[in-house]
Amino acid sequence: MTTTGETHRTAGGPWWWGRWRSAALDGGLAVASAVECGVEGVRFARDAGVPVAVGVVFGVLAGFALVLRRRWPIAVVLVGVAVTPAQMGVLLGVVGLYTLAASEMPRRIIGALAGMSFLGTLIVAVVQAQRDMGHGGLVRVGGWFVPFVAITTSLGVTAPPLLLGLYVGARRRLMESLRERNDSLERELQLLAERAEERAEWARGEERTRIAREMHDVVAHRVSLMVVHAAALQAVARKDPEKAVKNAALVGDMGRQALTELREMLGVMRAGGGGGRVRESDVVAPLAAVGVAAAAAASRAVDDEDGPCLGDLDELVGQSRAAGMVVELLVEGDVTSSYVAAVEQTAYRVVQEALTNVHKHAAGAKTYVRLAHRASEIAMQVENEPPAADADSAAGVRLPSGGNGLVGMKERVTGLGGVFVCGPTDAGGYRVSAVLPAG
């Protein structure tokens, strides 16, 4: 940035010029000013009684000062004021005053130098007008003529370049401010775009986690029961064919129920599409455009569509009993109002996953399922006693565990603003407790 307030994207000019075009313009103005001052230096030399060559050199040097107008505008204006008494440097004074007014100099400096230029021009105009009247050419003109000519000449030389320079400087500063504001807006938009991409990435991760948790809840319980029944079927196939047939039917029922729940969930995930094979991009890609709100909406859609409820707990407990587990279901309090679907589904999934963990890690242990309906919340607890010493051999199989069940339960409960606690009991069993707000 130069003293005139001009900014350039590329610094390709010599010295203090940002562009070669600016250097050429200032050079041309300096040559024209030097020629003008050199010609006027001849008359100045004759009036001052000095050699003509001295007057011409003085004028040329003074005129060439205009080449410094972008670098030192104050010096150019001072040179113009200094040569005003010699009646030379009109172009120098006009261009220098314009450059100063258009620069970023303080207004008080611009006003002071403009006043000096006006005063110098006024004095020279008064002297010249009186000299002309003294020669007899303007004898009959009234006394008002000299002040009128002097003030008009001074204003004509000083006011236009000053006002034009102030206007150009203000417009240049406005354009620079708009440019900076545009750059700032571009940076803000880029930052917002980056944050939106981060939120979309977070939403995609959350949706993947939620889908994985839902798949785990749907599949793990059913498949665990199927494995238990299959192990029992293998144990009694030869000894008790009738019981083997019953266990085989239960395995088939469990498989069909698991497939039904998977189809329902995938159907919701496929809603709005044209059917066909479900791909991860079909579920996750739209979230990049709509962000967190769409992810939450998709989550609610999956959770609210034909999901399990508290009324299905009896059937859930019955399935575990059919697999050989001793389960007691205790319900306290009355349901005074219907819970929202997300609360009922979360309560159901907590009990379901807790029973699945008993099948996996404490086969044959007696289990207690307690459900308490309160004024503004619902509490559930699943607690099992220590498994029998021969439980594993009786079951015939040790079910694999991915370690995601407790994590998924905690995420579900805390996501609704509830409290989740789990851990071993003093008697050697395990307890899972959760409290959910009714709303």
TrEMBL record:
This protein's record includes keyword Repeat: no
Group of enzyme by EC: transferase
Coiled-coil annotated residue ranges, if any: 168-195
Keyword Methyltransferase: no
Enzyme Commission number(s) from the entry: 2.7.13.3
Gene Ontology cellular component terms for the protein in this record: membrane
Reactions mediated catalytically: ATP + protein L-histidine = ADP + protein N-phospho-L-histidine
Family matches, as InterPro entries: HATPase_C_sf, Sensor_HK_TwoCompSys, Sig_transdc_His_kin_sub3_dim/P
SUPFAM superfamilies, per the entry: ATPase domain of HSP90 chaperone/DNA topoisomerase II/histidine kinase
Record field: transmembrane: 48-68, 74-97, 109-129, 141-169
Span of domain Signal transduction histidine kinase subgroup 3 dimerisation and phosphoacceptor: 207-271
Keywords for the protein's UniProt record, in alphabetical order: ATP-binding, Coiled coil, Kinase, Membrane, Nucleotide-binding, Phosphoprotein, Transferase, Transmembrane, Transmembrane helix, Two-component regulatory system
Gene Ontology MF terms in the entry: ATP binding; phosphorelay sensor kinase activity; protein dimerization activity
UniProt name for this protein: histidine kinase
